[in-house]
Amino acid sequence: MRFSIYRFNPDVDKKPYMQDYDIALEDSDQMLLDALMRVKALDDTLSMRKSCREGVCGSDAMNINGKNGLACITKLEDLQEPVVLRPMPGLPVIRDLVVDMTQFFEHYNSVMPYLQNHESPPETERLQSPEDRAKLDGLYECILCGACTTSCPSFWWNPDKFVGPAGLLQAYRFIADSRDQEQEARLENLEDPYRLYRCHNIMNCTDVCPKKLNPNAAIAAIKDLKIENVKAHKQDAPGKKIFGIKVL
Amino acid sequence: MLFELLTAKYPGMRLWLTQRLCALSMVAGLLLFCMRVLWLAPHDYAGWVAVFAPWWWRLLSVWFFICMLLHAWLGVRDVLRDYVPHLGIRVVLQWVVNLAVCGNALAVVWILFAMKF
Fold first, then answer.
1. Running DSSP on this structure, what letter comes out for residue A181?
2. CA pair distance A5, A47, nearest whole angstrom
3. Is A247 on the interface with B (CB under 8 A)?
4. Which of A49, A63, A205, B32 could form a disulfide with A165 if both were Cys (CB 3.0 to 4.6 A apart)?
C-alpha cells in the first residue's frame, strides 16, 4: 500500500516535503496505525504520537486523506491510495506528524474544565438524578484529540481568540452539569465576540469527530442558555411598569 | 429583554442575534411577498406596480431590504476580519462594502418612493 507522508524536521529541513512509502501489509494490519508502525519500522526517523491504539487517548489524531481522524480507528480498507497523511492543520508543527497543542489546551483551560461547587463535599459523591446525568451524555466522552478544533476554519483564522469546538463542548459539559454552581460565570466567560460567536455552524467539527460527538449542538445550546440567562435576570429585576404591566 | 441583548453589554450576543433577527425578518417578508403576489397575480407591468403601490407595502419592502443588507454586512465583515489579516487592505475593503451597502439602501428607497404609482 502506498503512503505519502508529510515530513518536516526543523533541525535539518528548510521547508516541509511529502515522502512516499510503499509498504507490504500483512493480514493482521487492519487499521492505519498498524500500517504506520510498518512505516516506522522501515524509517525510524518518522515522528508521530500514539498510545492506546484503540481510540481512547486521542494521541494519533492526524489529517488522513484531507480529513482529520484517529489513525488507530481508521480502517485501511476504507482509504484511497496513495494515503496522504499530514499533521492536523492550524497548529504549529513540531516535527513530521507531531503538532504543538499548547494553544488548544490553553483554550481548554480557559473554559475552567472542572466542577465548581462551593458547598462542603458530602461524605459520599455528589448525587445527580438520572435525568440530570443524561444531560452529560455526548459531552463527557470527548477525548481532546483536537480533530474537531483543527478542522474548524474559524479556529484557523482566529487561533488565539476562538475557543474552538473541543473547548466549547467541554464548556457546555460543565454548564450542563447540575452539580456545578458557576453556570453564570461560565456563560459570562464566553461573551466575547470571538470566543463563542465565531462559530458559523459549518459543522466540520461534527463531521470529523472520531467519537461521533456533536460540538455544534453544544455550541448552539450555549447560545440558547445565554439568552435564557438574560431572560431569567430580566424577570427577577424590578423593571419599569406602565399601567401596572411590566415592560422591557 | 430583547433590546438589552442588543446593547453593548452583550457584545458577542448583539452581533449574532442581530444577524438572526434579520434572517427571521427576511423569511417573514418573503412569505408575505409570496402571499401578496399569489393574491394579486400580476401578469404585466401595471400589475407589478399595483403590488408595490400601497405606502405600507413599500415601507415593508424597505424594511426587508434593510434587514438583508444588514445581514450581508455583518457576514462580509466577519469574512474580511478572518481572511484579510492586513489592516490597511481590510479597512479599504470594509469601506468599499460600507459604501456598497449604503448605496444599495439608498437605491431601494429611491426606487420604491420616487416611482410614480
1. S
2. 11
3. no
4. A205
- Rounded to the nearest angstrom, the minimum Cα separation between A191 and chain B is 5
Q: What cell numbers appear for A81 in the block?
A: 491510495
Alpha carbons A212 and A69: distance in angstroms, whole number: 11
Residues 6+ apart with CB under 8 A from A108: A144, A166, A167, A170
CB of A224 within 8 Å of a chain B CB? The answer is no
Domain count for chain B = 1
Per-residue 3-state assignment (H helix, E strand, C coil) for chain B: CHHHHCCCCCHHHHHHHHHHHHHHHHHHHHHHHHHHHHHHCCCCHHHHHHHCCCHHHHHHHHHHHHHHHHHHHHHHHHHHHHHCCCHHHHHHHHHHHHHHHHHHHHHHHHHHHHCCC
User: Using an 8 Å Cβ cutoff, are A135 and A84 in contact?
Assistant: no
B71: left (phi over 0), alpha (psi -120 to 50) or beta: alpha
Give the per-residue pLDDT at A229: 85
Q: pLDDT tens digits, residue range A49-102?
A: 999 999 999 999 999 999 999 999 999 999 999 999 999 999 999 999 999 999
Question: Can you give the CATH number for the domain in which B86 is found?
Answer: 1.20.1300.10
Which of A197, A227, A240 is the best substitution to test chain B (most B C-beta atoms within 10 A)? A197
Question: Which residues on B lie below 8 Å from A193 (Cβ)?
Answer: 11-12, 15
Interface test with B, best of A195, A227, A236, A247 (most B CBs within 10 A): A227
**Contacting residues of A for B1, CB less than 8 Å apart:** 230-231, 234, 248
- CA dist list (Å): A173 to A81, A91, A115, A178, B115: 39, 24, 10, 10, 57
pTM strictly above 0.80: yes
* DSSP character at residue A123: S
